[in-house]
Amino acid sequence: MPDPSIVSPADHLFEFLRELLSTLPACLHCDGEFFPVGRILDSQLRDDDELWYLIRWKDRPASEDSWEPAYNIVPGNARMVNAYHRAHPNKPK
């Protein structure tokens, strides 16, 4: 049985990739494409209790804001999502 105190190269790679993902710019994944998120404007629970965010797209006018399901948000958005909920603690999460 392998010694659990020994760190494998795969462990180093996993940690590197996790750190890299946390530094990526906020993006939303939809239909195989990535779109940069400017900021989160609002959140709501839909009828099926699914969380959705109102997104302002980076470098796009307010007329293109859209509601997106939380599951579309990729890991690079974690900081933005957390900051939104800290600023709006009474909003659905």
From TrEMBL:
Coiled coil: none
Pfam families: Chromo
Domain Chromo: 35-93
Signal sequence extent: none
Name of protein: Chromo domain-containing protein
Species of the source: Capsaspora owczarzaki (strain ATCC 30864)
